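Long-time lurker, finally posting.

We've been working with GIY-YIG nuclease family protein (Mucilaginibacter myungsuensis) and I want a structural starting point before designing mutants. I don't trust myself to interpret raw outputs, so I'm hoping someone here can both generate the structure tokens and explain anything notable. Sequence follows.
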Amino acid sequence: MYAIVDIETTGGHASANGITEVAIRIHDGMQVTHRYETLINPLRDIPVFIRALTGITNEMVDDAPTFNQVAHEIYQLLHDKIFVAHNVNFDYSFLRYHLSAAGYDLNCNKLCTVRLGRKILPGLPSYSLGKLCHHLGIGNTSRHRAGGDAEATAELFGLLLRSDSNKHILASLKKNSKEQNLPANLPKGMIDSLPMMPGVYYFHDQKGKVIYVGKAVNIKKRVCSHFSGNNPNLQRQEFLKNIYHITHRECGTELMSLALEAIEIKRLWPKYNRSLKRFEHTFGLYTYEDQRGYLRLAVDKNRKHAHPVHNCRSLLEGYSMLNLLMEEFGLCPKLCFIQKNNEVCGSPSGELCACTGHEEVDVYNHKVNTAIESLKEQLPTFAIRDKGRNWEEQSCMLIENGRFYGMGYIPNDFEVNNFDALKACLAPHPDNGYIRNLVVAFAERYPARKVEFELVEAFS
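Top reply, 14 upvotes:
Generated this for you. Predicted structure of GIY-YIG nuclease family protein:
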């Protein structure tokens, strides 16, 4: 038995909105055997645009039952049936959420007439309920009301049952079929074609724009996990509704997929990604020449298109490092913006310091350059060589002077110790603190996959 359902609501997601009308048509596979519909008092104001769309006003539902008052009757109609709706996850998420709040656990197999329409009646210009019914000659005298839409969906479902020569409905109901959980506009074939290997996947909207980027050890398994469950929140419901297409890029390892995900999120700035959009080292150690010709060191916030001598995760870390350099190389605290008063300079030189002009420019700048070189000597240059996407290649990621340089794939027989040749084979990317930390941590965990380079060779 099938329960064909349509609801009207006060908004687009279950956790913050109420139901204003429910219509259920019980279908035995041949015809509708029972009809149920009722207005519901959502115990909140119905927004103006919803009133305009559905015609349901606050006055109309004032004397209607609340959902809790009809929850038992609705549950009895639904719980042992196959739940059918046009864009089924919307109606199911609302009813399951509100039934749960009333103490009932709804757990049904589902069928979506949008997905079934695309399979059984392919090639139509639109699969929205109104346009699909108009194309098929199915009447609906009460559009955007639960009763009218449920009646039209029931007639559409009967037509789909009669037209299903390839048994798509039966296939969708098989125990191991996850199709009813998929977004209404996403063809199942796209899921079937995904590989079970590490990589990055992209969800696209109706216009082809990337709206989400994710990484995975197993692309197919991870993508399917997005569609399990019935989370009723707004972001998830909009997210699922807007997925029309999936593409992917295979990676040799999880590390490569983590790095590529971070790069692509920065490049594409997808609507539904939140993490990794703003992860950067906040501060850096910068050097510049003042009007008198003295080199000055300063800790400052990272600036776009500026290249710090060294990245710092915090202001405290930056000043701690700068204090160590001042102490080791005799740098002026005033020229490093550490001492900001008008008292005598706190360096060992005192009144004979560079800040008073007594120490010659060349002498002081040599100390600053020596301090900068000492920092560079502490920055590693190495590559990570690991599995590729197939047996003919290996993946490679390069850290140069403590910065993420880039990554790519090299032949198995490539001489990775040739630093310049290796750089030419890799795709360069902007330095990224998140990726840099990933690679450094991986190198510490798997030292056998690390290829180190001599400092002289790295600077050549």
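Before you design anything, note these points.
The first strand starts at residue 2 and ends at 9.
DSSP finds 17 helices and 16 strands in the chain.
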